[in-house]
Amino acid sequence: MALTPAASIDAFFETPKITCALTYTRLDVQGIIASVQDGAAGATAIFIGTTRNSFKGKTVTRLEYQAYSSLAIKTMSTIAQSAINSASRSQHQPPHPESSIVPPIIKCAVHHRLGTVPIGEPSIVIVVSSPHRKEAFIACEEILEEVKRKAQIWKREYYEGEDENEAEWKANT
C-alpha cells in the first residue's frame, strides 16, 4: 500500500456560488448535485468522470490520485470563478441590469477524489446550475478542461499483469 504524501490531504473551499473539494472519501454524486440547486435554475449540467476498465488496450485495475491539495483547491476555485465570470447571458434573458435578473451561472461545484479509485467509481464530479442549459454546459466543460490542464493533481494507473511498483504517475490530463 502506498503512503500518502503529507501535501495530498482533504481540502475544501466554499463561497455562496462555488464549492470545491478534494477528498479521500467516495464522492456523493447526489449530494454534490443538490449543493447547486436553486429555484432560479432551469438547467443543471453534470459531468461525472469515472474510472474505466481499460486504457490503450490494457486492462486497468484501479487509479490512484494525489494532489498538492493546498494549491490545487485554490486552482480549482479560481477556475470555477473564471467560468462564472466568463459566462455570457442567454438570449432568453434581457441584457439590461436589474436586481431581479438572474446571473448566467448560479452555482457550481467541483469535487475530485484522492487516493485509490476503483473501476466504475467517480473520480471527478462537476455540476453547474444556470437559468438556461447552454451556459451550464459551456461552464461545465470549461471547468473540466481547465481542472485537467491546471490543477495540481496527479494520476497513477494500475494495469492487470503489470508490476504495481512500475506504475507511473501522470499529469491528470
Provide structural commentary.
The chain is of the alpha+beta class and 173 residues long. It has three helices and ten strands, in the order ββαβββαβββαββ. It has helices spanning 29-34, 69-86, 133-150, and strands at residues 11-14, 18-23, 43-50, 54-55, 58-67, 107-113, 115-118, 122-130, 153-159, 169-171. The chain has a five-stranded mixed β-sheet. Strands 4, 5, 7, 9 and 10 form a five-stranded antiparallel β-sheet that branches. The chain is elongated and about 55 Å long. The protein starts with 10 loop residues before the first strand and ends with a strand. The mean pLDDT is 90.
Summary, kept brief:
The protein is α+β, with helices and mostly antiparallel strands.
**Per DSSP, what share of the residues sits in E-state strands of 2 or more residues?**
25-35%
DSSP helix fraction: 10-25%
Q: What is the molecular shape?
A: elongated
Number of strands: 10
Low-confidence stretches: none
Mean pLDDT: 90
Distance between the termini: 24 Å
Strand order of the largest sheet: 1-2-6-8-3
Class of secondary structure makeup? alpha+beta
Distinct helical segment count: 3
Radius of gyration: 18 Å
Secondary-structure element pattern, one letter each: EEHEEEHEEEHEE
Largest sheet: 5 strands, mixed
